[in-house]
């Protein structure tokens, strides 16, 4: 049973007020709040268990290493990876995708080689590929969404040519909430010998994920969106792809031996994890993923689907609000514009006075904003602890915005 009141009680910040109003936190797409178990885990790791990992022989170093490395198993279970060695820790999706760009793509691509992207992508899954365009002459091929914000897998596959070296695609749009059929894309791309990177920053939050079933080569997640600490994350890299990669970062922990003449590298995953890592952040990420798995990702998805349906119904009653992206089966993410002169920043400011936190801006998706012909939207993104009452508060807040701005 999905006990929403019990779940909300797990998140201490949800009991506070903002501007004299109960906090209605609808900015989960940017960063989610943290349950008490994560806060306690991080506090304990600093207060009672802290030391550097992989290096010491004393009690605290061994304890910290044990706690840290246990998270690799947690992420493996969360994503259903084939092996713990396929999980590489990092600071989040941005670092994970940059690792792929520098350590896998850059050495393998020449001028004229192609990377296929969708216009739905977050900048984290755009800018690293622009680096290759600028520096190596790689060609970026773009596939636009349909009018309802959905993405036709066949159009993405039709963009493949004999020069295509990678498809880089989101599983869930952070602007529209569109859920992309990445399994179909990966299956056909693999048949054609084209690797696929999946940005799971939103997908892993809202959906059960099985990377072996999806069939992707790379799958990146970000901890702070998964109710864990900022500065934490991981990327799944299929072992066959790891064998094609050289390290991107060099330093401690990723070496086997160093002499004046040469260096030899540790086996994966440490080969790609140079330097002192985010020890406590990663331990906190493990606690967050265990919390999600205890709730059950299917249960979370069902709860959020109910919220999405209810929010769609309520927002449809506001004929002066435009919901950007209405694809069937979308996640509970709603990017809104308002008819008239109302700017997204003004909408966000007024909602904040009512204790309602939404995001306003381009959401690190400027190519998509240009495609839509807007400079910004106000985005309400729901999470596992949000309620129908909070949907109603959002609607009431938007009605106030309409009275004041239009």
TrEMBL record:
<dbReference type="InterPro" id="IPR015424">
    <property type="entry name" value="PyrdxlP-dep_Trfase"/>
</dbReference>
<dbReference type="InterPro" id="IPR020578">
    <property type="entry name" value="Aminotrans_V_PyrdxlP_BS"/>
</dbReference>
<dbReference type="GO" id="GO:0030170">
    <property type="term" value="F:pyridoxal phosphate binding"/>
</dbReference>
<keyword id="KW-0808">Transferase</keyword>
<feature type="domain" description="Aminotransferase class V">
    <location>
        <begin position="24"/>
        <end position="394"/>
    </location>
</feature>
<dbReference type="InterPro" id="IPR010970">
    <property type="entry name" value="Cys_dSase_SufS"/>
</dbReference>
<keyword id="KW-0663">Pyridoxal phosphate</keyword>
<dbReference type="InterPro" id="IPR015422">
    <property type="entry name" value="PyrdxlP-dep_Trfase_small"/>
</dbReference>
<dbReference type="InterPro" id="IPR015421">
    <property type="entry name" value="PyrdxlP-dep_Trfase_major"/>
</dbReference>
<dbReference type="Pfam" id="PF00266">
    <property type="entry name" value="Aminotran_5"/>
</dbReference>
<dbReference type="InterPro" id="IPR000192">
    <property type="entry name" value="Aminotrans_V_dom"/>
</dbReference>
<comment type="function">
    <text>Catalyzes the removal of elemental sulfur and selenium atoms from L-cysteine, L-cystine, L-selenocysteine, and L-selenocystine to produce L-alanine.</text>
</comment>
<comment type="similarity">
    <text>Belongs to the class-V pyridoxal-phosphate-dependent aminotransferase family. Csd subfamily.</text>
</comment>
<protein>
    <recommendedName>
        <fullName>Cysteine desulfurase</fullName>
        <ecNumber>2.8.1.7</ecNumber>
    </recommendedName>
</protein>
<dbReference type="GO" id="GO:0031071">
    <property type="term" value="F:cysteine desulfurase activity"/>
</dbReference>
<dbReference type="GO" id="GO:0006534">
    <property type="term" value="P:cysteine metabolic process"/>
</dbReference>
């Amino acid at each position: 049973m999905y006990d929403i009141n019990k779940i909300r009680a797990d998140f201490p910040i949800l009991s506070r007020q903002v501007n004299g109003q109960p906090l209605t936190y609808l900015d989960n797409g940017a960063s989610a709040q943290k349950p008490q178990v994560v806060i306690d885990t991080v506090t304990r790791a600093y207060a009672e268990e802290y030391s550097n990992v992989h290096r010491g022989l004393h009690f605290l170093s061994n304890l910290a290493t044990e706690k840290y490395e246990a998270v690799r198993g947690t992420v493996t279970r969360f994503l259903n990876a084939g092996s713990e060695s396929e999980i590489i820790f990092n600071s989040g999706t941005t670092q994970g995708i940059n690792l792929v760009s520098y350590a896998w793509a850059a050495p393998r691509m020449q001028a004229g080689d192609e990377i296929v992207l969708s216009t739905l992508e977050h900048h984290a899954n755009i800018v690293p590929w622009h680096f290759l365009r600028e520096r190596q002459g790689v060609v970026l091929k773009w596939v636009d969404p349909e009018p309802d914000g959905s993405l036709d897998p066949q159009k993405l596959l039709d963009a493949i040519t004999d020069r295509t070296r990678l498809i880089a695609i989101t599983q869930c749009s952070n602007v529209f909430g569109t859920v992309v059929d990445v399994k179909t894309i990966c299956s056909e791309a693999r048949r054609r010998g084209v690797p696929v990177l999946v940005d799971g920053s939103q997908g892993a939050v809202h959906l059960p994920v099985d990377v072996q079933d999806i069939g992707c080569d790379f799958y990146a997640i970000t901890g702070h969106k998964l109710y864990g600490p900022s500065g934490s994350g991981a990327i799944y890299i299929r072992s066959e792809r790891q064998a094609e990669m050289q390290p991107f970062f060099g330093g401690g922990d990723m070496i086997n031996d160093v002499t004046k003449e040469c260096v030899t590298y540790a086996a994966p995953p440490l080969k790609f994890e140079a330097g002192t890592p985010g020890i406590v952040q990663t331990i906190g990420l493990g606690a967050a993923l265990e919390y999600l798995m205890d709730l059950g990702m299917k249960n979370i998805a069902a709860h959020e689907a109910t919220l999405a349906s209810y929010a769609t119904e309520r927002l449809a009653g506001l004929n002066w609000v435009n919901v950007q992206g209405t694809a069937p089966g979308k996640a509970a993410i709603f990017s809104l514009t308002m008819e008239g002169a109302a700017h997204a920043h003004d909408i966000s400011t007024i909602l904040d006075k009512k204790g309602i936190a939404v995001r306003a801006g381009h959401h690190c998706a400027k190519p998509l904003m240009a495609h839509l012909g807007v400079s910004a939207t106000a985005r309400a993104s729901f999470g596992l602890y949000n309620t129908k009452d909070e949907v109603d508060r959002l609607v009431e807040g938007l009605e106030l915005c309409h009275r004041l701005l239009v």
